[in-house]
Structure formats: structure tokens, C-alpha cells
């Protein structure tokens, strides 16, 4: 895939997938999923060097870890549409006997997933470990991770942030979904986190800000810039400014849709703003 | 009573250190992580010989568990090292999600378990770790009894695919198992055949059980003594076979009676052949500062306690 129109079509289709998945089971997390749709589209289709098929070790390819596992709908849609598992399987999201658990897991053997996540704050440590394994294996591929901004309130992140800088884990690009929202409200009201850029820099990271985190061209440019800064003795952080609920007007700029599914009427309205492009599952 | 002797005492943690060093030489995928306790865990030799395969994490155990999980992705076999308290209770959720539920091949190696850590006191004397770890689906839980067995267990767990909790301790204890004894996960070791009472013990309590067996013999009681080095998976066959013969059992462990070996055995018996059982274990309390011997006596974990428990359980037959 290469042109922006195709990528935008995919993003629109992924949005439909997210909305239909959470609507069907009346549960799940559409807000963050919608906000990170462009990031996932860019990462899996323009940025990461991926090999055919799936194995747990992932040697000889780039790796991605989702730390904020509750945005599983976008992850599942992207993986399915990338060919890791049948697109029809999105129909089983959160249902009994499904490989598509509420939060991603390796436990059911879903291709594309290498760690369980959901309990917040653990993904950066895992990504660091995988990055260090790549170094031991003389594998020059990169490790990517995604974290919620609210998730940074978990202390383990700061252990990991300190460690990655101290140990020069420079084959890691950790992206923070900087949407300023968490379940109980705006992050700055729940627990004011101050200047995240300054914090990461103070810990010794190279920080890039992507101001328009829902614009594909901007994201691709930013991710490529991040890639160019790897291998320089510092871990790389991207502060990705997104809008929670992006692409559905009544879900945007609020934490209300963090973990709430649309009803029938709301689904119809949301889908009308995201017309079918590549075919619904 | 079969005679057990020893010529040397050594700490089980040194057995871990020796096993890890040997693994470093023979398995290039083995890597080690430590949260600022290299000396206490006896990891120096591995680190000296394999500096590129060692990760000093600093005092950040949660991060250590996550990094260990990540290192398995890429085929590494990580051995984490810190005290038992910080290896389990402190990082339970990290182990649960990133290691156990994720099915990662991490070996959680925990020293200074139980009361025998001694003077540092209750903050460091975890007596709940076996329970915490055995409740995790897929987790193997091992508590070897002496230097040789800890070394053998360390080497053996590298060949097991999946998460393992390996528990050992600080004090010097008699080395009485053969240096060449093969370690089989989940396979109990018969130490003495007897007909009156079954005594199953794990970790530091195995030597005490042998002492108790000798004392009981002097009183005309023959004890069947079994070394249960693996608490999960439990060697159910060995225990059921023994109680069929003896009709009663004493379980011995340096752990709270809630959640430990004794509870696993009780569950096994309840599901199969209920027989009287006595627990030589800590009676649902925290520990305190003191010498290991003082603590084992005060909390009822020495050979005399085992003898009393055996006599009590015999009366309940």
C-alpha cells in the first residue's frame, strides 16, 4: 500500500470495524481505538518491516506491542485486515470461545499478538526486553510500542523509562497516545501530568511530537523521523496528539466514549460518517 | 531408617548460582536479570563469564518482570533474581499478565524465602509466595532442599518450556542429596520407606523431616519420608500411594499453612483418599527478626515440631 487515499480508505474501514465490533457486544473501548486508527494504519502499512506469516519470536522483523490493551478493537481490525487472521473473525470480538478477548492475549493463540495487555503500565518493560533480545540476536529491526497518556500514571512506566535511557535501548520507539482523556475525565483533571515532553527528555529520551496525530501524512512523516533517530544511543518517544473518538463527531473531544458502546441509532449515525470502503466483515 | 549424612553445609542460593553459571556455559539462550542483589543471589560467576547476557535492572522489580517477558520474544530464556518477597508479592500482576497469562518462558528465581532469612525480619520473610505462585495457571513451583538439589533444579528448569517459580534460601543447610541426582520436575523423591506415618516435606524442612524420622524410629515409629521439591505440579501418585500404606500424613514447609504444600496435599487427599493430616507450617502469621534457628523453633518448623505432629496424627488414625 502506498498512496494516501488507499490508506485513508483503510482507516475509514477500520473505524467501521471498531464501531460495529463494540456495538455488537455492547462493550469495549471505541474512543481510544478511533483516536489511534491512523497511527495503526500507518505503522502496519507504511512503517514496520514485517515478514510473511507470524511467529512468536519475531526475529528478522519489526515488532509492535500494545500496552494500553483496552483499545483492542483497532488492533484486531488492523491485524485482520493485514492478513494475520480472517477478517470474519472480528465478528467474535468479546464473545465466548473467541480468540479476540476483551483485551489482547497470546493465550488463545491469535496471530499477531505477542504479549497480553490490559492491566496498564506493563508494555514498555516488555518492549524494552524484546528490543534487548533483538540486540543480543544481532537483529537490526526495531521495536514499537503504544501507550495511553493516562497509562503513564502507572509507576512501572517510569522504571522502564529510566532503564531504557540508562541502558541505551535505542532500537525502541515508544508512542504515547496523547489525547488528554482517561475514563474519569481529562487527564489533567484526574491527575495532572505536567510537561510530558520535558519529563521524557529529562529521563534521557529523544522526543518527537506529532501535532496532528489523526492525519496520515503527518504521522508517516513523524514515524519516519523517529526511525531516523534510532541507533543513536537514546530511546525514542513520540508524543502523538490525537483526538479520542476521532472520525465520529459526537464521540470526539470527550472521555465519554472511552469505554462505552454506541446504541443502534448512534451506530447508524457513526457509520454514516464513515462509509464502507474495503467491505465490512 | 535409611541413614543420611553430610560433610558440608551450604546455602541453597549458592546452588542456584552454581547452576546458573553452568547454564551460562552450556545454553547460549539463557540470560539473567537482577534487581540490585547480585551478591545475595550468587549470580557473580554467570555475570563474569557472560557479561553481555546479564541485565542489571536496578531496584525496579516490576520492570524486571516485564523485561524478562520481552526477552523471551526472540528466544531468550530469562532467569530473574531477587528476594522471594520482591519476586512474587511485589510483582504479582506483572507475573500474572506479562508472564503467566502470556505463557512466557521466564524462570523466576527467588532467594531468601521464608523465615530463615533471619534478622531482616517480617518485611522480607515472605511466607505466602508458594501460594501466590501456585495459583497462577501454568506456573511450575519448585522449592529444593539443599545445595545440590537447587543446582540441579536450576539447570533442569531451563529445559522446561514455560514459567517457573524457583524458591530457595539464605542459610547454610546440610548437603545430603547426591551431586549427580537428576532433577525431574514434578517427581517426588522417596527418602525413607515406612509404614506408620507419611511425612512430606519441601525446601529446608526436608532435612528436618529426616531428623524427625530418626527420632520417631527411636520411639518405634517408622516414617515414610518424601521430598516434595515440586509443589506444582504435585506428585499426586507418590503421595496417594504412601498414605494408602500409612493412613496418615504430616506436611512440612517453611510457609504459611494457608496456600502452601500442606494445602495442596489436603486438597489432593480430600478429592481422593481423606486421611488425617497435620501441618508443620507457619500458623497464619508474619515472622520477625531473629536467627534462623530461633525462628524455626519459635514458629514450630524444626524436627521436634515434626515429631510432635507425627505423634498427633498417629493418634487420629
SSE arrangement:
The complex is a heterodimer of chains A (281) and B (317).
Chain A lengths: L3 H22 L4 H6 L1 H11 L15 E4 L5 H11 L40 H14 L6 E6 L7 H11 L5 E7 L2 E2 L2 E2 H4 L5 H7 L3 E5 L5 H13 L7 E6 L22 H9 L9
Parallel strand pairs in A: 1-2, 2-3, 3-7, 6-7
Antiparallel strand pairs in A: 4-5
Helix pairs in contact in A: 1-3, 1-4, 1-10, 3-4, 3-9, 5-6
Chain B lengths: L8 E3 H15 L3 E5 L3 H4 L2 H6 L4 E3 L4 H12 L4 E7 H4 L4 H10 L5 E5 L17 H6 L5 E3 L4 H11 L6 E4 L4 E3 L14 E4 L4 E5 L3 H14 L4 E5 L2 E3 L3 H11 L2 E8 L4 H11 L5 E6 L9 H7 L4 H13 L2
Parallel strand pairs in B: 2-3, 2-4, 4-5, 5-7, 6-7, 10-11, 10-13, 13-14
Antiparallel strand pairs in B: 1-8, 6-12, 9-11
Largest contact between chains: A-B, 39 and 32 residues
- Based on CA inertia axes, which overall geometry of chain A fits? globular
Number of domains of chain A: 1
Radius of gyration of chain B: 19 Å
Supply the CATH architecture of chain A.
3-Layer(aba) Sandwich
H and E string of chain B: EHEHHEHEHHEHEHEEEEHEEHEHEHH
Percent of residues in β-strands of chain B: 15-25%
- Fourth CATH level, the homologous superfamily of the largest domain in chain B: Thiamin diphosphate (ThDP)-binding fold, Pyr/PP domains
Helix content of chain A: 25-40%
CATH C-level of the largest domain in chain B: Alpha Beta
Portion in strands of chain A: 5-15%
- Count of extended strands of chain B: 14
Major β-sheet annotation of chain A: 5 strands, parallel
The pLDDT mean of chain B sits at 98
CATH topology of chain A: Rossmann fold
Structural class of chain A: alpha/beta
Amino acid at each position: 500500500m502506498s498512496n494516501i487515499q488507499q490508506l485513508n480508505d483503510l482507516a475509514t474501514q477500520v473505524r467501521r470495524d471498531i464501531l460495529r465490533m463494540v456495538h455488537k457486544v455492547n462493550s469495549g473501548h471505541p474512543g481510544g481505538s478511533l483516536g489511534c486508527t491512523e497511527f495503526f494504519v500507518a505503522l502496519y502499512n507504511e512503517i514496520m518491516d514485517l515478514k510473511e506469516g507470524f511467529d512468536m519470536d519475531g526475529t528478522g522483523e519489526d515488532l509492535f506491542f500494545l500496552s494500553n490493551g483496552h483499545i483492542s478493537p483497532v488492533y484486531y481490525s488492523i491485524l485482520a485486515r493485514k492478513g494475520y487472521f480472517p477478517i470474519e473473525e472480528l465478528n467474535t470480538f468479546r464473545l465466548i470461545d473467541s480468540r479476540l478477548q476483551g483485551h489482547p492475549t497470546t493465550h488463545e493463540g491469535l496471530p499477531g499478538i505477542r504479549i497480553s495487555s490490559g492491566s496498564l503500565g506493563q508494555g514498555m518493560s516488555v518492549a524494552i526486553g524484546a528490543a534487548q533480545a533483538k540486540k543480543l540476536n544481532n537483529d537490526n529491526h526495531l521495536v514499537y510500542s503504544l501507550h495511553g497518556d493516562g497509562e503513564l500514571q502507572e509507576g512501572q512506566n517510569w522504571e522502564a523509562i529510566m532503564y531504557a535511557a540508562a541502558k541505551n535501548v535505542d532500537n525502541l520507539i515508544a508512542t504515547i497516545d496523547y489525547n488528554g482523556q482517561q475514563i474519569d475525565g481529562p487527564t489533567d483533571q484526574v491527575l495532572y501530568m505536567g510537561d510530558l515532553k520535558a519529563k521524557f527528555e529529562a529521563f534521557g529520551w529523544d522526543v518527537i511530537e506529532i501535532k496532528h496525530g489523526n492525519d496520515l501524512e503527518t504521522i508517516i512523516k513523524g514515524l519516519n523521523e523517529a526511525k531516523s533517530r534510532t541507533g543513536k544511543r537514546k530511546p525514542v518517544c513520540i508524543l502523538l496528539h490525537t483526538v479520542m473518538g476521532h472520525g465520529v463527531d459526537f464521540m470526539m473531544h470527550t472521555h465519554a466514549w472511552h469505554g462505552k458502546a454506541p446504541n443502534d441509532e448512534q451506530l447508524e449515525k457513526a457509520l454514516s460518517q464513515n462509509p464502507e470502503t474495503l467491505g465490512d466483515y | 531408617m535409611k541413614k543420611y549424612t553430610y560433610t558440608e553445609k551450604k546455602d541453597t542460593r549458592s546452588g542456584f548460582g552454581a547452576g546458573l553459571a553452568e547454564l551460562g556455559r552450556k545454553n547460549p539462550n539463557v540470560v539473567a536479570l537482577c534487581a540490585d542483589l547480585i551478591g545475595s543471589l550468587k549470580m557473580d560467576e554467570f555475570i563474569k563469564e557472560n557479561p553481555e547476557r546479564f541485565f542489571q535492572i536496578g531496584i525496579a522489580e516490576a520492570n524486571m518482570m516485564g523485561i524478562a517477558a520481552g526477552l523471551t520474544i526472540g528466544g531468550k530464556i530469562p532467569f530473574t533474581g531477587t528476594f522471594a518477597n520482591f519476586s512474587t508479592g511485589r510483582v504479582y500482576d506483572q507475573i500474572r499478565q506479562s508472564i503467566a497469562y502470556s505463557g512466557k518462558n521466564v524462570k523466576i528465581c527467588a532467594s531468601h524465602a521464608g523465615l530463615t532469612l533471619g534478622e531482616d525480619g517480617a518485611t522480607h520473610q515472605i511466607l505466602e509466595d508458594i501460594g501466590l505462585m501456585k495459583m497462577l495457571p501454568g506456573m511450575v513451583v519448585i522449592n529444593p532442599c539443599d545445595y545440590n538439589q537447587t543446582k540441579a533444579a536450576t539447570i533442569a528448569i531451563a529445559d522446561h518450556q514455560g514459567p517457573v517459580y524457583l524458591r530457595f534460601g539464605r542459610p547454610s543447610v546440610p548437603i545430603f542429596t547426591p551431586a549427580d541426582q537428576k532433577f525431574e520436575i514434578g517427581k517426588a523423591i522417596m527418602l525413607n520407606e515406612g509404614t506408620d506415618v507419611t511425612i512430606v516435606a519441601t525446601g529446608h524442612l526436608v532435612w528436618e523431616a529426616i531428623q524427625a524420622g530418626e527420632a520417631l524410629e527411636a520411639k518405634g515409629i517408622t516414617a515414610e519420608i518424601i521430598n516434595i521439591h515440586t509443589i506444582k505440579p504435585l506428585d499426586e501418585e507418590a503421595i496417594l500411594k504412601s498414605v494408602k500404606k500409612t493412613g496418615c500424613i504430616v506436611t512440612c514447609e517453611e510457609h504459611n499453612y494457608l496456600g502452601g504444600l500442606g494445602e495442596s496435599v489436603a486438597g489432593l487427599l480430600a478429592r481422593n483418599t481423606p486421611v488425617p493430616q497435620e501441618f508443620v507450617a507457619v500458623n497464619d502469621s508474619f515472622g520477625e527478626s531473629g536467627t534462623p534457628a530461633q525462628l524455626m523453633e519459635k514458629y514450630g518448623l524444626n524436627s521436634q515440631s515434626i515429631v510432635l505432629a507425627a505423634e498427633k496424627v498417629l493418634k487420629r488414625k
